[in-house]
Specification:
Elements: H1 3-21, E1 24-36, E2 43-48, E3 57-60, E4 64-71, E5 79-82, E6 107-113, E7 119-125, E8 137-142, E9 157-165, H2 170-178, E10 188-191, E11 198-202, E12 207-214, E13 220-225, E14 230-235, E15 238-239, E16 244-245, E17 247-250, E18 255-261, E19 268-276, E20 283-290, H3 308-316, E21 344-351, E22 354-355, E23 358-359, E24 362-363, E25 366-368, H4 375-380, E26 388-389, E27 404-406, E28 408-413, E29 417-424, E30 430-434, E31 439-446, E32 464-465, E33 467-470, E34 474-481, E35 486-492, H5 495-499, E36 503-509
Parallel strand pairs: 1-4, 3-8, 9-12, 11-20, 21-29, 25-27, 26-28, 28-36
Antiparallel strand pairs: 1-2, 4-6, 5-7, 7-8, 9-10, 12-18, 13-17, 13-19, 14-15, 14-16, 14-18, 19-20, 21-24, 22-23, 29-34, 30-33, 30-35, 31-32, 31-34, 35-36
C-alpha cells in the first residue's frame, strides 16, 4: 500500500471511529396540557408525552441528541437545557434571546451534543410561566467507558427533582406578574411531582448515587435523609472533594449528586426536603426503603441545621477535585484558572424597583424587555433596533437613577477571561445562572463587595458550576473563561424575577468566521419578528 493510500486509510478510519464514539439518540416529545394531582386535587399541568414530570433524558458524554418537540399547547413554547453548554451552538439553547418560540401546532427539532460534559442537569420551559406547571425533567449525562470515576461505581442511582409549587395555572401566575405584582409564597414543595410517598429502594450495605436538582421557581431547599450521611461527589458536572454532610442546601436552578451508603438497621427512613430562608416553611418527604425492611418510617423527621452563615460555609467546602477526571481524560486541575489575567471586571447588583406602580426586577438599574425578534437572529441578519449594546454599567450605579427598560446585550471577545461579582442588595436569597458555560465560584461574602475581597478568593480549587447563590445583602464572585462563541443568557434562576427583567445577554464573538468557533444558523431554525422570511 503506497503512502497516499495509507494516509487515506487512516483518515477514514479516524472518521469512522469518531462517528462511532458519538452516537445519535432520537426523541419525539409531544407537549400537551393534562390534568395532574400534585396536591391531591385536579390541576392543569404541562405534560411531555403524557408524563409529569417529563421523561428523564439519559445520555453519555458527546452523544448527539435529536429532540423533536411538538407543541400542542395554545401558546408558543420553548425548552432550555439547563447546564448543557451547547458548544459553538447557542442556536440550540432554547431561550427567547436565541430561539423563536415554537408556535401552537408547530414543532422544532433541537440538535445538540453533550460535548465534554458529565453530570446532573435538568430541562424546563423557558417561555412565559410554563415552568410553573410542568414541562420539566431530569437530564443526566453519564461518563464514557474509558474515563474513570473518582469513586466506586454505585449499585444504582436515583434522580430527584425538587421544587416549590403553586396551586394555580401558569396563566394566572403570568397575569399576576403582568399586572405588576410579585408572586406570593408558593403553596407546596414537591419531590418528583408529589408532596410525599415517593419511595427509593436499595439493598443494605450497598451505596447509591442520588442526583438532586432544585427545579423550583423561588425557594432554596435543604435536603437530608434520616440517619444517613450524604457524600457529595459531583456539583453540576464537576467532581469535587468528597466530604460528608448531614444536610445540604440546594438553591434554585442548582444540581448536586451525592453517595449514600445503606449502612443502618434494615428499616425505612425519611427523605426530607424543606424550603429555606423564607417566612413560609414548606416540606416534602419521601422514603428510603431498605429491601429487607419490615419496619415503616418512625420518629421525628430530621431538621436542617444550617443558618445563613452555615450555608455559606458549606458552599465554600465544595472544592474541585484537582486529580479527578471529568468528561475528558485530563484531570480537572490541569487548567490553572487562578493564574490567568482577567480582561474585564464587572459588578452586577440585583434590585426590585417599583416602576409606574408595577413590580420590576433589574440589573444595575436596567430591566430587560423581551423583543419580538431574538437578539441572536437580529445579530445574524444585522437587523438594527432589536437590542441595545453595552448599556448595563460595569459597576453598580451610584444614586437613584431612573430604571431603564432595554433589551440588553453586553459584548465580549472570544477568549476573554472575566470576573463577575453578583451583589445582592435585598434581604432575600438570589440565584444567578449563565447559559453556555460553567464558571469558577471563587468567593462568597457578606455586605458590600470591595476590591480588597479579592484577597479571599479561592484561586486553586474552586469548583465550577453554572448557577450560583448570592446570600441576602451579600456577594458572590465568579471567574469565567469565555471560550464558547454565541449569544448567552445571564439571568436570575428565580423565574418570576427573570420574567420581570432580571436578565440580559452576552455576545461572545470573534471576527474570524470558522466552524471551529461557531456553527451556522441551522436550516430548520424558526424565524419570527423582523427576521421572518430572511435568508
Amino acid at each position: 500500500m503506497n503512502s497516499s493510500l495509507l494516509l487515506l486509510f487512516f483518515f477514514f478510519s479516524f472518521v469512522f471511529l469518531a462517528c462511532a464514539d458519538d452516537p445519535y439518540r432520537y426523541f419525539t416529545w409531544v407537549v400537551t396540557y393534562g390534568t395532574i394531582y400534585p396536591l391531591g386535587t385536579p390541576q392543569q399541568g404541562i405534560l411531555i408525552n403524557g408524563q409529569f414530570p417529563g421523561p428523564r433524558l439519559d445520555c453519555v458524554t458527546n452523544d448527539n441528541l435529536i429532540v423533536n418537540v411538538i407543541n400542542k399547547l395554545d401558546e408558543p413554547f420553548l425548552i432550555t437545557w439547563n447546564g448543557i453548554k451547547q458548544r459553538k451552538n447557542s442556536w440550540q439553547d432554547g431561550v427567547l434571546g436565541t430561539n423563536c418560540p415554537i408556535p401552537p401546532g408547530g414543532n422544532y427539532t433541537y440538535k445538540f451534543q453533550s460535548k465534554d460534559q458529565i453530570g446532573t442537569y435538568m430541562y424546563f420551559p423557558s417561555t412565559a410561566m410554563h415552568r410553573a406547571v410542568g414541562g420539566f425533567g431530569a437530564l443526566n449525562v453519564y461518563k464514557r467507558a474509558p474515563i474513570p470515576l473518582p469513586y466506586d461505581p454505585p449499585a444504582g442511582d436515583f434522580t430527584m427533582l425538587i421544587g416549590d409549587w403553586y396551586n394555580a395555572t401558569h396563566k394566572a401566575l403570568r397575569q399576576t406578574l403582568d399586572a405588576g405584582f410579585a408572586l406570593k409564597n408558593p403553596d407546596a414543595l414537591l419531590i418528583n411531582g408529589v408532596t410525599k410517598s415517593t419511595s427509593f429502594t436499595g439493598d443494605q450495605g450497598k451505596t447509591y448515587l442520588f442526583r438532586v436538582s432544585n427545579i423550583g421557581l423561588l425557594n432554596s431547599i435543604n435536603f437530608r435523609i434520616q440517619g444517613h450521611k450524604l457524600r457529595v461527589v459531583e456539583v453540576e458536572g464537576s467532581h469535587v472533594i468528597q466530604n460528608f454532610y448531614d444536610n445540604l442546601d440546594i438553591h434554585v436552578g442548582q444540581s448536586i449528586a451525592f453517595l449514600v451508603t445503606l449502612d443502618q438497621a434494615p428499616k425505612d427512613y425519611y427523605i426530607v426536603a424543606s424550603t429555606r430562608y423564607t417566612r413560609k416553611f414548606l416540606t416534602a418527604s419521601g422514603v428510603l426503603h431498605y429491601s429487607n425492611s419490615k419496619t415503616p418510617v418512625s420518629g421525628p423527621m430530621p431538621n436542617p441545621t444550617l443558618g445563613l452563615y452555615g450555608s455559606m460555609q458549606q458552599a465554600r467546602t465544595f472544592r474541585w477535585n484537582l486529580t479527578a477526571n471529568a468528561a475528558r481524560p485530563n484531570p480537572q486541575g490541569s487548567y490553572h484558572y487562578g493564574n490567568i489575567t482577567r480582561t474585564r471586571q464587572l459588578v452586577f447588583a440585583s434590585s426590585a424597583p417599583i416602576v409606574n406602580s408595577k413590580q420590576r426586577y433589574a440589573v444595575n438599574g436596567v430591566t430587560y424587555v423581551v423583543p419580538d425578534t431574538p437578539p441572536k437572529l437580529a445579530d445574524n441578519f444585522n437587523i438594527a433596533g432589536v437590542f441595545s449594546v453595552d448599556n448595563i454599567p460595569s459597576n453598580i450605579p451610584s444614586g437613584q437613577a431612573p430604571v431603564v427598560f432595554a433589551t440588553s446585550v453586553l459584548r465580549f471577545n472570544l477568549h476573554d477571561f472575566i470576573e463577575i461579582v453578583f451583589q445582592n442588595t435585598e434581604n432575600t436569597m438570589q440565584s444567578w445562572h449563565l447559559d453556555g458555560y460553567d464558571f469558577w465560584v471563587v468567593g462568597y461574602g457578606a455586605g458590600t463587595w470591595e476590591p480588597k475581597h479579592r484577597g479571599t478568593y479561592n484561586l486553586v480549587d474552586a469548583t465550577t458550576r453554572h448557577t450560583v447563590q448570592v446570600y441576602p445583602y451579600g456577594w458572590s464572585a465568579i471567574l469565567v473563561s469565555l471560550d464558547n462563541q454565541g449569544m448567552w443568557n445571564i439571568r436570575s434562576a428565580m423565574w418570576s424575577r427573570q420574567y420581570l427583567g432580571q436578565q440580559f445577554y452576552i455576545r461572545v464573538w470573534t471576527a474570524e468566521h470558522s466552524y471551529s468557533s461557531e456553527y451556522d444558523m441551522p436550516h430548520n431554525a424558526l424565524q419570527c419578528g423582523k427576521a421572518r422570511g430572511l435568508h
